[in-house]
Amino acid sequence: MLHSFELGLDDHHQPARSLVLTGVLPAGCVADEKGSRLVCEREGEHLLDAIGQVAREVRRSHGFVLNDVGVEKPHEWFCDGLNGYGAESVAQLLLLAVHRAELLGYTAADVVRFIHAVTDSSTHVTVDPGGAHQSRGLRS
Q1: Helical segments of the chain, H only
Q2: CA gap 9, 25 in Å, rounded
């Protein structure tokens, strides 16, 4: 599935630093007029896959984590599937968490270990039609 999205850098650690993307950009992406954001169309099973691919490529070639998907109010929640506004909010929060964790000195392994710890495979979180979250144990 083809996904359209923008990625940028919201760097609270060094607010004066400007991001100018030069050189080889990820496939399917162009820099905006200011050169500060990537405008992308990328294939992926779902939105997080597409965003993750581009973020990985930028990190490898430019050395930083793009952490801004352009979601202004990530606390506003919409349970609209793997490719909607809710997915954009999740991507925004995850990218920002990775960026800020690294500023504090956490490694990728620390972040992954944390995610695994809080996503205990013996429980499953579901969302009822009204949007309320429910956690229930899974039985084998």
Answers
A1: 47-62, 85-104, 108-118
A2: 15
Q: Which residues pair with 2 in a beta bridge?
A: 43
Closest CA to 65 of 39, 29, 91: 91
* Torsions phi, psi for 56 (to 5 deg): -65, -45
Joined together, the tokens standing for residue 83 give 């490719």
pLDDT at 24: 78
* pTM to 2 decimal places: 0.73
Strand order in the sheet with 29-31: 2-8, 37-43, 29-31
Can you tell me the distance from the alpha carbon of 50 to that of 28, in angstroms, rounded to the nearest whole number? 10
Q: What is the mean pLDDT of each run of 10 residues along the chain (140 residues)?
A: 91 52 82 85 94 91 84 84 91 91 92 87 53 37
- In whole angstroms, give the CA distance from residue 95 to residue 101: 10
